[in-house]
Amino acid sequence: MNVSKNEAQTYLQIIEEVQCQARKALAHGGGPFFMMIWGLVWFVGYLGNQFLPSQTAGMLWFGAGMAGMTASFFTGWWISKQLRRPGHDARIGLFWLAWLIYTSLIIGISGAFSDLTLMSVLIAIMAMFGYVVMGLWLWKPLAGVGILVTILAVAAYLLLPGYVNLIMAILGGGVLFISGLYIYHNWR
Fold this sequence. Notes:
Layout lengths: L4 H24 L2 H21 L2 H30 L4 H23 L5 H22 L2 H20 L4 H23 L2
Helix pairs in contact: 1-7, 2-3, 2-7, 4-5, 5-6, 5-7, 6-7
């Protein structure tokens, strides 16, 4: 098939326009909000793990997690009303519910509940697995965020285990929050 220079240029312009529209749709969708919500949850929870007694940190995580789930539910509900994409958001919610159940089983069976540092890293790795799956399914940059935070979590655990929670608060929670903020502000 022979394509003239003008036709090729027209096709490239169409592709660029579709990419621009896709970015805007993502920025108007829930992705950036969920990333910011869970970035804040991670920041608070992991800082608690680093600096508070285990029982207090656990209560802080529980409270932050419940706040994150509540904020995520209402954000998803609000966005589903705005975008009018029936079924799509429900599948994402069901995916994360299944993720929560399987992650809890993995952590429970592995005995990681007795080692808070290991449990923190496993939760981070499993959460980033979810981000990679979402990225492969819906939006490639999310997979990149998942891979980056997974690398940070594993490196922190292996190289600086005494500071893994501090590193995850700043870099893990920070990467999630700043990525969401960047997408929200720059892709509109």
